[in-house]
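Why do we bother with holo predictions? Because pocket geometry can differ from the apo form. Keep that in mind while you read this record for zinc ion.
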Amino acid sequence: METIVIPPCQGRAFRVKEGQVFRIVNSQGEQTCDFFAFRADYLAEWLSPNHTYSFIRHLRPRPGDVFASRFYRPMLKFLADTSNGWHDMLYAACGLMGYERWRGEETWHANCEDNLRNAMYRMGYSIDVIPQPVNFFMPVKVAENGDFLPIVNTVTPGSYVELQPVMDLICAISACPADGSKDGWRINPADGPHELLVEID
Ligand SMILES: [Zn+2]
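The structure, written out:
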């Protein structure tokens, strides 16, 4: 088994073959994981949450679901989940301009967009598009009128999701650098972002 450490506020990419099982482990708990997947031999085919939930017809992915590409093709099976079952497919990856707009920050802030770009760059690829991520371990709550409700991450240490590619993939993970809490919202640990682990069988 190979273990990849995704340090707090950083991103890593890795290759997985069709049928190979891997787990994303929330080793210390309460940490949001921005997850991206690309077809290994054609990076323009990426995992699309929008196409996935149009097909599975629910917003919180669960074991038994299959994540689809933007061409509606099966990419990845969701095999198991030991977390509290809250995963988000709606929120965009955090980005530099997001921190500027949300918080008025004018200095650079680590962000999931840059983490994805850098992780793919290390694999030898320059990407132009930041796909919508699957935000594992991040709660999403939507009121009947469509409002997003405040969310607090309560995932316990050691929780994991287990996935199995249906095609050869390059996957990328960002240990989301969003820090602090505001108006009852907190998607990462109160003492700052933590690491994530990937275990590849
Ligand atoms: Zn983020």
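The CA atoms of residues 82 and 159 lie 5 Å apart.
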